[in-house]
Specification:
Blueprint lengths: L3 E5 L4 H12 L3 E6 L8 H9 L4 E4 L5 H9 L5 E4 L6 H6 L1 H21 L4 E7 L23 H19 L4 E7 L1 E3 L18 H9 L6 E4 L11 E2 L1 E3 H14 L3 E7 L5 E2 H12 L5 E4 L8 E2 L4 H7 L7 H16 L1
Parallel strand pairs: 1-2, 1-4, 2-3, 4-5, 5-6, 6-11, 7-10, 8-13, 9-14
Antiparallel strand pairs: 9-12
This protein binds uridine-diphosphate-N-acetylglucosamine.
Uridine-diphosphate-N-acetylglucosamine binds next to helix 7 and strand 8.
Length: about 325
């Protein structure tokens, strides 16, 4: 019998790439999404890539009745929970919207999992839970201090709620995956990052500059204490990240465990510009401006735990990320 999974947020950027990997590995996958920041057509692309069109529920996690109906219809072996709002700067302006969606939706999901005895969960968390500490981050570091946004605090709060749940019910197995900076697209060019929202992250903004929709990239500061003065991040290919979820599912243990998913490589904003120019053969117009509030100079992973316990590591590098993002852009425009 195939193991069956419910994937919340499965039409979104990271969710859709993970669904492709799950189906390819032989899992029976159903998707739940409210389509707030994704498109229904993604299901066709998943079908093109895997030969399977997963069952889809257009449900908002805050609608507890609709959610309970989904759980009543099928006995899932596990849940992967991606659904949530993710615009960090919006979360500072509309904290209640973020807490209501991301915490409220998760409460309903956990309630249903408990009621229907589904006790395996993989949760999309973020390296932002480490707050302002020196890199590289490993999982033994404290979390929850100096987190710069309500988005990040909601991730931290959910991690803590899941700890309490695991302590109260030893039947639960929860893997917390702390993502660094996901980027790139499926090498087929069929799926990638296609937000309905205005982009806030570096890669989608670089692509808007590449297409001429934005006139130039604003580099937020070149006076950081880093080799070239711009901020350093740990970009990981979305397909590597998706495969990290499969590895977590295979190796999940009873209780609560957190894993960093990152490449361990630090890449500066100027390195990203160079990588773009090499991959595209085009110049990227940019201008250095003031630092962005809340940015840390350097932020990268120690992913040793995921390597050792999940047998996972990244296979793609920043050049693959650029190539696949450009390829996705070509597909979208062609
Ligand atoms: C941000 C969030 C983080 C979230 C992650 C999701 C903040 C403070 N952190 O991380 O919580 O988990 O997105 O991927 O918002 N940059 C520019 N110009 C731009 C955009 C970005 O120079 O127009 C720089 C930033 O200063 C930063 C780097 O590019 O150094 C990456 O920025 P971004 O993609 O927004 O990610 P993070 O800030 O690392």
């Amino acid at each position: 019998m195939k193991e069956s999974l419910l994937v919340t947020g499965g039409t979104g950027y990271i969710g859709s790439h993970t669904v492709v990997e799950l189906i390819t590995a032989g899992y029976d996958v159903e998707i739940l999404d409210n389509l707030y920041n994704s498109k229904i057509e993604v299901l066709d692309q998943i079908e093109q890539l895997t030969g399977v069109k997963p069952k889809f529920y257009e449900v908002d996690l805050r609608d507890s009745e609709a959610l309970a109906n989904v759980f009543a219809g099928k006995k899932y072996d596990a849940v992967m929970h991606f659904a949530g709002l993710k615009a960090v700067s919006e979360s500072t302006k509309k904290p209640l919207k973020y807490y209501e969606n991301n915490l409220g939706g998760t409460f309903n999901l956990l309630r249903c999992m408990k009621d229907y005895s589904v006790k395996k969960l993989i949760f999309s968390s973020s390296a932002t839970v480490y707050g302002d500490q020196p890199s590289p981050f490993n999982e033994t570091l404290p979390t929850g201090e100096k987190i710069s946004s309500p988005y990040g605090r909601a991730k931290y709060m959910i991690e803590e709620i899941l700890k309490d749940l695991c302590a109260s019910d030893l039947g639960f197995s929860v893997a917390i995956l702390r993502y660094f900076n996901p980027a790139g697209a499926h090498p087929s060019g069929l799926i990638g990052e296609d937000p309905n929202d205005k982009p806030n992250n570096l890669m989608p903004i670089i692509m808007k500059v590449a297409t001429g929709e934005f006139p130039e990239l604003l580099v937020y500061g070149d006076d950081y204490n880093t080799p070239d003065g711009s901020c350093i991040r740990d970009y990981l290919h979305v397909v590597d990240l998706a495969r990290g979820h499969l590895a977590a599912l295979k190796h999940i243990q009873p209780g609560w465990t957190a894993y960093n998913l990152g490449s361990g490589e630090g890449t500066s904003v100027f390195d990203m510009i160079t990588a773009f120019e090499q991959a595209s053969g085009k110049k990227l117009p940019y201008k250095v401006v003031e630092r962005r509030a809340g940015d840390l100079a350097a932020f990268y992973a120690d992913s040793t735990k995921a390597q050792t316990e999940l047998d996972w590591q990244t296979e793609f590098d920043i050049n693959d990320i650029m190539r696949d993002t450009l390829n996705y852009l070509d597909h979208q425009n062609g």
